[in-house]
Automatic annotation (TrEMBL):
One function term, GO molecular function aspect: phenylacetyl-CoA 1,2-epoxidase activity
SUPFAM superfamilies (UniProt xref): Ferritin-like (SSF47240)
Listed Gene3D superfamilies: 1.20.1260.10
UniProt keyword annotations, A-Z: Oxidoreductase
EC number: 1.14.13.149
UniProt name for this protein: Ring-1,2-phenylacetyl-CoA epoxidase subunit PaaC
Pfam families recorded: PaaA_PaaC
């Protein structure tokens, strides 16, 4: 299989894994028990999806690296996740703004990938889509509840959306990887996801009585490069914590 497919599997696997780690940081710190459990369950779904993508990537590479080796034994510049998922959690509104904007994109992407010409990509997408359908419903509901809540929650939610919005453009950028896979019928062009993503996001933000940021505000050049190994310092700190056990005791198993 191709280098492009290997890179694409890493992009999706790394993004799911990094976002899962971010959500796990809320364990024991959630605003309410029900929300804490829901956030943890979302994190578990994402780590399961990451395992499928990373296992697939290891098989494509053919160098004997399994999901654990790819997760724990790569350095920051070898990760290809989207920058939006590595952003620090901030307050709960910040976390939900990030989750909502990513979930809607993730849903529409996976829906396209269920039609992939590659059987493994299709299988992973079908399984993941069932989980992400729940993720997007939950995050949309919370955006509405927080946006159309108190005066304070409304103001803070608007700030969170505006801040996270600057990082969504990268999700819709195409490069040699997505273009080659699109030509092979394996993946979709990410730019083609924008219209349906924007329509869905706009409907939710309107219901939440929040202002919809301008399209041009989503495509800041400073907030791209994650899919090519260029990251913020936030990822380095996250990986240091996530990888400490495996790097302290190389090859350790349960």
């Amino acid at each position: 299989m191709s280098q492009e497919l290997f890179n694409y599997a890493l992009r999706l696997g790394d993004s799911a894994m990094v976002l899962s780690q971010r959500l796990c940081e809320w364990t024991g710190h959630g605003p309410a028990l029900e929300e804490e459990l829901a956030t943890a369950n979302t994190a578990l779904d994402l780590i399961g999806q990451a395992r499928m993508w990373l296992t697939f990537a290891g098989e494509i590479e053919g160098k004997g690296r399994d999901e654990d080796a790819l997760a724990y034994l790569r350095d920051t510049h070898d990760y290809f996740n989207y920058l939006i998922v590595e952003r620090p959690n901030g307050h709960y509104g910040d976390t939900m703004a990030r989750q909502f904007l990513f979930d809607v994109w993730h849903y529409f992407l996976l829906r396209r990938l269920t039609q992939s010409s590659n059987e493994r990509v299709q299988e992973i997408a079908v399984k993941s889509l069932k989980e992400v359908t729940y993720h997007v419903r939950r995050s949309m509901d919370l955006i509405v509840r927080l946006g159309d809540g108190t005066e304070q929650s409304h103001a803070r939610m608007q700030e969170s959306i505006n801040d996270a919005w600057k990082h969504v453009g990268e999700l819709f950028l195409d490069d040699e990887v997505t273009r080659v896979l699109h030509e092979q019928g394996i993946a979709t062009l990410h730019a083609s996801l924008w219209d349906e993503w924007f329509e869905q996001v706009s409907e939710v933000l309107t219901e939440a009585t929040l202002t919809i940021p301008a399209k041009e505000d989503a495509f800041h050049k400073a907030h791209r490069g994650g899919t090519h190994g260029h990251h913020t310092e936030a990822l380095g700190f996250l990986l240091a914590e996530m990888q400490v056990l495996q790097r302290t005791y190389p090859g350790a198993t349960w």
